[in-house]
Specification:
Order of helices and strands: EEEHEEEHEEHEHHEHEHEHEHEHEHHEHE
CATH architecture of the largest domain: Alpha-Beta Complex
Largest sheet: 7 strands, mixed
Bound molecules: zinc ion
Number of helices: 13
Helix content: 25-40%
Strand content: 25-35%
Number of domains: 2
Length: 344
Amino acid sequence: MKAALLRNIEDLAVVSVPDPEPEPGELVLQVKACAVCGTDVKVFHHGHKHIVFPRITGHEVSGVISHCGPGITDFHPGERVTVAPAIPCGRCHYCRRGWPTMCDNLKAIGYHYDGGFAQLMKVPAIAVANGCVNRIPDNVSFAQATLAEPLACVINGQRLSQVELGDTVLILGAGPIGCLHAELARATGAGQVILTDILPERLQIASFTGAITVDLSREDILTRVRELTDGRMAERVIVAATSQQAQEKAVELVAKRGSVNFFGGLPKEKPFINLNSNLVHYGEFTIVGTHGSAPRDNRLALTLLASGRIRASAYLTHTFPLEEIHQALQAAESRQGLKVVVTP
Ligand SMILES: [Zn+2]
Ligand SMILES: [Zn+2]
């Protein structure tokens, strides 16, 4: 088969590799679509602590089951599925508590295992056994189904943020993740949803979400949020950007007893921020993080995509064949559209 093989940092080539053969309990997918995630771009430039080269990356995958290994009874060749890439072990303290995203032995497709920037992808037995393979509803296309992965992370994040009916939800960063947050908050019944960015062109694209937009290149965010909330500020603030500045600002924008979610991680060489701890003390608000999603969130994401409350087609702005993987990564990095999909 053909695969985009990351042989080293910034050394990516489309080459022929042997077809994966399913072992007992494993599946092999014919990949139909694999979306480019921000982390794929990061991994291309900087590598990753869990990646040993050479590796096929790509973890927002959908496809058709082409082969079932011995012992598979729940799936059949020809079924349309997505794969939740984060694979919990199912046995550690956190898995048994029902918090699979915090699994001590978490493994991931596209990191520990080969991913979806290839014509075929093997799904490890532990992923099949732990519920990571989910059927795609008939009215959701393969490209649309790749959104299940980022949407699952957004679902996990808003659960941690405890978004409630009527809340003002403020999202810093209007990329694909910010837009998914805005649409999910509206679907959940948030009162006002406010989406901000420093790039006006991103806000223009994001207008389909129906959120109130604040252009940080022209407007002062504190003043605007104060106006929009009668001085109370936002019950839920979600930082959907990789930015120290945005995280520091977030604690000034949150209402009393609200929550701030550091949804986007910071670069590992610059993870520290300065925040006014007294704001937390007096405001009694909560700061949470979000790391990935559980297999169940992936199933919820597919249900939401099928319902039309997340307008999947609005996100799919670029498509490239596998041979143009470099252009696909560049398109994602340039932030001109929302999601870039590779169709192997
Ligand atoms: Zn992703
Ligand atoms: Zn575990």
